[in-house]
Amino acid sequence: MTSLTASQAWAQAQSNAQPRYAIVETGLLSDESRMRFLKSDFSRYSIMRQNEFAELREYGPWLVDVSPLTFDEFSTHELFSNRQALMGWISSDCPGDQLNEHLSDALLAKNEVEEVLLIRSYAPEVLPLLHARPDLPWHPWLFGPLKDSTTGNASRAAATNSCRSIIPSPSTPSFGRLWSWTHWPITL
Questions:
Q1: Which pLDDT tens digit goes with each residue over 125-181?
Q2: pTM for the predicted model, two decimal places
Q3: Given strand 154-157, what is the order of strands in its sheet?
Q4: What are phi and psi for residue 113, nearest 5 degrees?
Q5: What's the start-to-end Cα distance of the chain, in Å?
């Protein structure tokens, strides 16, 4: 974990030429704000890219490339001013499409009885719980491509691996790569 503020982590990522991406959950926006977001010029990817989620895409989480913005511009931009919908931002060496694929796969998990669950792995209340479990086998896979993760005013060093070192998960069912919560005492 790092003690950098969000603005310091942004400046550090920017000086290292690392792309920065916001995660916005558009279902938490008003209809007008959601349409403005979907029509914006920002490069963005629906994190719910699986065919099974086609009807939810417009309302689900989106990965948005905010690299061209300074921290102050990002913090005050009308598309990112809804703090309920803005889940936070991350920096990564991964190109947006590869990072999005990874985050999309991270939406799914199996519980101890092998049921497939949809989880909000990107959410500020969930991400710290996941990060706090480096003892579990899915941890390097999940955090491999992330450099920093910020939620609210906190900044967390998520990992130091580059995009090239993403560790594939053990299985690839029709929903995509899954990781298991076996032996995890927290119910999400």
A1: 888 888 888 887 777 888 777 655 555 434 333 333 344 333 333 343 333 344 444
A2: 0.77
A3: 44-46, 61-65, 20-25, 86-92, 146-151, 154-157
A4: -105, 20
A5: 23
Task: Read off the tokens for 113.
Answer: 């009885």
**Residues 91 and 20: beta-carbon distance below 8 Å:** yes
- DSSP codes joined into one string, the chain: -----HHHHHHHHHHTT--EEEEEEGGGS-HHHHHHHHTSSS-EEES--SGGGGGGGGGSEEEEE-TTS-HHHHHH-GGG--TTTEEEEEEESS-HHHHHHHHHHTTEEE-TT--EEE--TTSTTTHHHHHT-TTSTTHHHHHTTEEEEEETTEEEE-----GGGPPPPS---TT---EE-TT-----
Q: How far apart are CA 32 and CA 94, in angstroms?
A: 31
Instruction: Compute the distance between CA of residue 163 and CA of residue 100 in angstroms, rounded to an integer.
Output: 12
